[in-house]
Amino acid sequence: xxxxxxxxxxxxxxxxxxxxAAQSLGVTQPALSAMVKKLExxxxxxxxxxxxxxxxxxxxxxxxxxxxxxxxRRADQALAAVRQxxxxxxxxxxxxxxxxxxxxxxxxxxxxIRKKHAGLRFFIREAGSSAVAAAVLSGELDLGIVTLPxxxxxxxxxxxxxxxxxxxxxxVPPKHPLAGKRVFRWSExxxxxxxxxxxxxxxxxxxxxxxxxxxASLNIVMELRSIESIKxxxxxxxxxGFVSRFALGTEEGLSCKDSGFSRQMAIVRRRxxxxxxxxxxxxxxxxxxxxxxxxx
Length: 296
Description:
Elements (H helix, E strand, L loop, with lengths): L2 H13 L2 H8 L3 H15 L4 E4 L2 E4 L1 H28 L5 E6 L1 H18 L4 E6 L2 H10 L4 E5 L10 E14 L11 E2 L8 E5 L4 H12 L5 E6 L2 H9 L4 E5 L10 E2 L5 E9 L6 H19 L1
Parallel strand pairs: 3-4, 3-5, 7-11, 8-9, 8-10
Antiparallel strand pairs: 1-2, 5-12, 6-10, 6-12
Helix pairs in contact: 1-2, 1-4, 2-3, 5-9
């Protein structure tokens, strides 16, 4: 029985829902259902009850989960021990983050570590904060860069290290009335078309809350995940947008005059696991370079 199957079963048990578990794992729901059926055939008994709200563990499923957790924990400990032995000469650093982190914060740190330790390899996953935090919890990733707060189940098991406060800025088409200005008020966006990040993402939640607090109703005409795609759509006149200051030059973008408009980004890792030397070196480099960039 593969460890991936055990990890997937644990995710299903945690989510209590096959579709939500599939989304967090980045697989299709039919593939996950097929995995469950194969696992139940191997075990010889149903492990899940299907309910109108999702799935629940059977008595056998609860017992199986205990042993699955133990097997995964022992495998992770064995893997960590080998990585510890290999130190900084070989190994893979597994890290995840959203579009801003992957595009603008990670490259300098990856470059610095690779120059010092050419034998290291990186596995980088771009995903939303919740999916990244879940992957760190499950052991699929060593480190994650997320937007706080983290609200998923088991979040207390994550150690959070504040990284940077990321100011969000308004960008507008070249001929927009706010073009050339340095600040904006929410009242100036009344009726404006907005090219936004996809609903449910951490940065979209920050934007929606700020607009709601100011009494502004955003007219979302397009949802995207890519920062560069948002910038291109804004340049094309589709609407205004909000992006990280890290995605803009020092003279680009408008700051919000009504109130602070930012999000706190943090590095997360499991509390109960020591970082291997390679992951620790990368963690420290990322922290130092990102904070230095934030001061510039």
